[in-house]
Amino acid sequence: MDPWFSAINGRDYEAVVEMAPKHAKAQDRYGETGLMIAAREGDLRLAEALHSIENSMRNNEGETALLVATKLDRPEIVKLLAPSEGRHKLPNGSPAIHVAVDNDATRSLEVLLPYQEGEVDAQGYTPLAYACFLGKPDIVDLILLKGKLKKKDLLDSATSAAETGGHPDIANYLRNYKADRKTAGLCADFVRKTGKGPGTNIADDVKKDDELDRIQVLMAELAEKERKLAAMSRENELLANKLSKAREQPRETHVAVRTRQVEAADPAPLGAGLNYTRMKEDFERDCDGNTPLMLAVEQGDVEAAKPLIQTQAKHKNIYGTTALMLAAAHNHVELVKLLIPMEAGMRANSGTTALMKAAHNGHLEVCKLLLEKEAGLTRRDGWTALMSAAANNRCDVIQLLLSTEQRMATHDGTTALHKAVVHGFPDAVRLLAPAEHECRLRNGSTAFYMVNREKNREIYDILSEYNK
Q1: Is 407 left (phi over 0), alpha (psi -120 to 50) or beta?
Q2: Number of Cβ within a 10 Å radius of residue 237
Q3: The pTM of the whole model exceeds 0.70
Q4: Over the stretch 373-409, which tens digit does the pLDDT of each residue have?
Q5: Among 54, 56, 101, 233, which is most exposed with the fewest C-beta within 10 angstroms?
Q6: Any idea which UniProt keywords this protein has (predicted)?
Q7: DSSP labels for 318-339?
Q8: What DSSP character marks residue 258?
Q9: Boundary residue ending a domain (147, 170, 185)
Q10: What pLDDT is recorded for position 69?
Q11: How far apart are CA 357 and CA 158, in angstroms?
Q12: Domain that holds residue 421
């Protein structure tokens, strides 16, 4: 190892002071200086020895020592470096205080407030507005309690940011705060009372990320289910009225009301102004709306499914799931082949396709069969089959889908590479990086800026090759 960095990493302070005139400002292969290493490790003595010589330098990620210290919540280092490095931002336009908000670095945030409370990022968000956009009530409380800028226009922009980020509870709190600060209480308490917690973003841990995906899908499915139930209720009321009228007719009529079905023994009109609409379903559904075909497909029973396809294909259950989606999810290749002509391209209530189901589970042969019909289709939020593969480290499927779905993004800018980085899959990152390393989230972050070098050294090394 280089003698300079040997002294740095070995905390040989006397050697560092002696070698500094000649070796200071040297950078390792990650672009890190001695001061950045001190910031990363929280070594105040080393930082004090080097900050006057190495301040304002950047590593391969575009970070200064202050930005590194802020991300890792090293308040003593932040206090030392804020006066000299506070003007520097990340390449995505984020000042150090926004980095503190992003990483819940509350101690560093408090240190930075006197220096950067009025700074804005590339989206025009102040630290308060950014915390509201991300749905972080504890950070909102800290800024409101410790900050000095509480002008009406700043509170208005923060309220708007909370609404844009999907956090109406925080927006309502800010309205109360603006009306009467003394009685508003704490934002975190207000959010807890309303039964809502802080939101998640792409840089959150994997568990929260997965939970958000599931919640979004379930909310969409619930809305669709409620819509269908309302429609069925109206339809049942109509059928009941028709049945009542039919009973009043002089000629003898058999009226059978089954699942969404009206059947007349005599097809002739039963009376003036009475029209019948046939809505036949000659099969029973289970409580989730699954048809006999769906149940046979789920079990992989080809022989039972074959005679049902002609009459029951293209139906959905209450979640919008089709028989093809079930076959794809369970890797029933023969059933997929039989169902593709009838159901390819159909979507569940959330927008999920059969290809996404297969990609999620790594069913390569099924993905090949569905590729022509469903590649490029997205969920309501912009999610793709490639993202499903990346989030689950399905490298064979990633290779298959890459040419048709690369660089596609969700509404917040998330790409398949971002998902692979968040979930910590270096093999998937290696496949996706050539095409997507420049893609940015809405907040301006590339996948490289999301990597925690200490936890994901292999991924960091892969992406650093594209950020030299």
Answers
A1: left
A2: 10
A3: no
A4: 999 999 988 999 999 999 999 999 999 999 999 999 9
A5: 233
A6: ANK repeat, Coiled coil
A7: TT---HHHHHHHTT-HHHHHHH
A8: E
A9: 185
A10: 94
A11: 38
A12: 379-467
